[in-house]
Write a structure and sequence with these properties.
Number of strands: 10
Helix content: 25-40%
Largest sheet: 6 strands, antiparallel
CATH class: Mainly Beta
Distance between the termini: 35 Å
CATH topology: Jelly Rolls
CATH architecture: Sandwich
Low-confidence stretches: 95-99
Mean pLDDT: 89
Order of helices and strands: HEHEHHHHEEEEEEEEHH
Structural class: alpha+beta
Number of domains: 1
Strand content: 15-25%
Radius of gyration: 17 Å
């Protein structure tokens, strides 16, 4: 299945129908190189994480990214990312005031982290990223998750698996349900509705990591997964650009 969205409008439409979209070449080679260096500086001292779902893993992860570094702020507020997220979340809220309440709300950055699927890491089984919101399914979009590829996403190194159109369903899926594997070049971004069932393949390579910047946005009336203000002095918050503060 071709997941490429050539424009913002195409990405919004595709996330609405299929549940996910890939925007190619979101950042250029120079920005990608800096993203790689900045990510590796944080990942390097991070101990290897235990496997998920009882699996063996040699993966790395860095959570609480917003509190720890300002090196990723320009990507957090990237105009294309925010336009797509607002197109998915805000438009639906405006047309469903009875569901979300009469007050107009915007979007927020709920959590930010770096993930590294290293050689030998096992699969991540199919799951949803909005399961902690106690609202019956199917429901209007509550979150958009994103994975900006620092390394190419391939079948061999553990690319993301997605079940198309599963955000429309109100049922739990079996672990072996049919899925598509989303392969993309470094610098491209996968964006998907938080209700879409997705997972990750195993990294069967000997020497190829699969790093990604993971930015998770949600409706602003929901509780954030990360407390961005915790550990961040008010003076530092005040110095942030207005468009970045608006996402907190």
């Amino acid at each position: 299945m071709d997941a490429i969205a050539p424009s913002i409008d195409a990405a919004i439409q595709r996330i609405g129908t299929e549940g996910f979209a890939v925007i190619p070449n979101l950042i250029d080679e120079d920005r990608l190189a800096r993203l790689s260096d900045d990510s590796e500086a944080l990942l390097h001292p991070t101990p290897n994480q235990p496997g998920l779902n009882g699996s063996r893993a040699r993966g790395r992860m860095f959570k609480g990214l917003f509190r720890s570094s300002r090196a990723f702020d320009d990507i957090i507020v990237h105009p294309t990312i925010l336009a797509v997220v607002r197109g998915v979340l805000v438009a639906s809220k405006q047309t469903n005031a009875g569901y979300y309440g009469s007050a107009f709300r915007d979007i927020q950055l709920s959590t930010a982290m770096i993930k590294d699927v290293q050689p030998g890491e096992d699969i991540r089984t199919l799951h949803q990223d909005d399961g902690f919101f106690p609202i019956p399914r199917p429901r209007q979009p509550l979150a958009v998750n994103t994975l900006l590829a620092i390394d190419p996403f391939t079948l061999a190194n553990g690319a993301t698996r997605v079940v198309p159109r599963s955000h429309h369903w109100g049922k739990k899926l079996e672990p072996d349900h049919d899925f598509v594997t989303v392969e993309m070049e470094a610098g491209s971004i996968l964006m998907f509705n938080g209700a879409v069932w997705h997972g990750r393949g195993p990294n069967t390579t000997k020497d190829r990591c699969r790093r990604a910047l993971n930015l998770y946005y949600s409706c602003s009336w929901l509780r954030q997964l990360d407390g961005h203000y915790c550990g961040l002095p008010q003076a530092d918050v005040d110095r942030l650009p207005a468009n970045l503060r608006a996402l907190l």
